[in-house]
Amino acid sequence: MTQPRPLIHPRDEIKHTMSRIYGYRMTTTSGGNLSIRDESGDIWISPARVDKGNLTRNDIVCVKSDGTVDGLHPPSSEFPFHKAIYEARPDIRAIVHAHPVALVAFSICQSAPNTKLFHQTHSVSGRVGFAPYACPGSEQLGANIAATFAEGCDSVILENHGVVVGGECLSTAFQRFEAFEFAGKTLIKARQIGKARYLDDEQLRIAADRSVALPTFEPETALPTERELRRQLCEFLRRGCRQRLLISTEGSFSARLDKDTFLITPTQKDREELTVNDIVLVNRGRQELGKKASRAVLAHQAIYDNDPEVKAIVFAHPVNATAFSVTDVVFDTRTIPESYVFLLDVDHVPYGVQYQADGSIAKYVSTRSPAAILENDGVVVAGKSVLDAFDRLEVLESTAEAVINARSVGDVSVMPDEVIAELRSAFNLN
Fold this sequence. Notes:
- The structure is a single chain.
- The protein is of the alpha+beta class.
- It folds into two domains: 10-193, 3-Layer(aba) Sandwich (L-fuculose-1-phosphate Aldolase), CATH 3.40.225.10; 211-426, L-fuculose-1-phosphate Aldolase (3-Layer(aba) Sandwich), CATH 3.40.225.10.
- The chain has 13 helices and 17 strands.
- The chain has helices spanning 10-23, 79-88, 101-107, 119-125, 139-150, 170-193, 201-209, 224-242, 297-306, 319-325, 337-343, 386-406, 417-426; strands at residues 33-37, 43-45, 61-63, 69-70, 94-98, 128-131, 155-158, 162-167, 216-217, 252-258, 261-264, 280-283, 286-288, 312-316, 347-349, 371-374, 379-383.
- The chain has a nine-stranded mixed beta sheet with strand order 9-13-12-11-10-14-17-16-15, sandwiched between helices. An eight-stranded mixed beta sheet has the order 4-3-2-1-5-8-7-6, with helices on both faces.
- Helix 3 (101-107) packs across helix 6, helix 10 (319-325) packs across helix 12 (386-406) and helix 11 crosses helix 12.
- The longest helix is centred in the middle third of the chain and has 24 residues, at 170-193.
- The radius of gyration is 23 Å and the shape is globular.
C-alpha cells in the first residue's frame, strides 16, 4: 500500500506521537525515543535528557546525513541503534523505542508474546524478533538490534531492556508498537485466569480475507441530530483510546440515526484521530460516497435490524475483558450489583460469528443481553445511546479487572440466585 505524501513536519510528528505514548503510560519521563528518517537521509530524533511528558517541537534534534547535529540538545543516547536499523532496513522510515510494562516483562523473561491471540494484532505487529542484551547506547546494542531487523523482523524485544519497532512512517510504527504491547498485556492477564488460546492459520485467514463492498450514495445535508451523533462518536472514541478501552487499530463504534440509517467509524483509520468528517453514514446497506465503513458494518447492521431499541454499538478490546476472550474461562457478572444490572449475563460468542454476513451475531447482543465476549476478538456492547454503550463498556472492563485481581486475594464469591432475583425485580430487568 502506497503511503500518502508526508505533510506534517518531523518535529511535530515526533512530539505528537511521544505525547500519546507518554499519555498512555507506555514510557517514562526519561525512557524511550522516537525517530524519523526523511527523504534526504537526515534522521530526526527525540533528545537526550529532556522530559518526555513536556516535549516541545523545538526539542527535536536533526542528525544530518553527514553526521552534523542541528538542535538545542544532543540526540538520544540510543541514536546508534536507530542509525544501525535504518542502514540495515532501507524500507523502514520511522522507529519507536520505549519501555511499556508488559513488553518489558517479556524482555526480562527472555521471551516475546505470541501475537496470534488476535488477527488484527498479529497483522499489525508484523514479524516478531528478539535481540540479545548489550549496554544501552553502545555500538554493540545497535549491531544486535540491526541484525534482528535485517532478518525481516518488525517488532523486536530487547533482552532486559524494552522494545523497538519500525515502520514505513511514524504512524505505522506507533500502531505496531501499541498493538504489540496490547498483545503482551492481554496475554499476561489471560495467564492469570487460565490457558491462553491462539488462532491457527485458517482462523487468521478467515479474518484477513473478509471484506465488505457496500454500494455508495450521496447523502443530503446533515441535520443537527446527525452532527451531534458524529460529535459524540468522536468524543467517546478519543476517551476510549485514552482510557485504553480501545486501541488505534482495533474496534468500531456506531450510532443509530433512524430505522434505516446509522453512523459508523471508518476502516483503517486511527480511532483516536478521527474527526466528524471521517465518520461514515450508512443507509439501507449503502455507505456514504467517498468513504469506507468499518469491516464490522454488517455486524452492526444485523444488531440494529434485530432490536429497534439498540441505539449504539461498540466493538472494543479492553485488556481485562479481552483476556476472557482468549481463554475458556466464563465471564461472570454476578459479582456486584452494578455489574449485573448494567450487563446482565454476558454470553461468549464462538470465533468468527461477527464476520459472517448472515446476521447471526444479533442472536448474542440486544438490549436484553447488552454485552458479549467475542472469542479471540474482544467484546461487543450495545446501548440505548452512545453514552449508555460506552458506560456499559467501562463497567464490563472494570468488572473484568476486579475479577482478575480478586483471584490474587481469594476465592471469587458470586451473588446467589435470590440476590439476582431481587435485582431483576428492583431494576425491572425481567
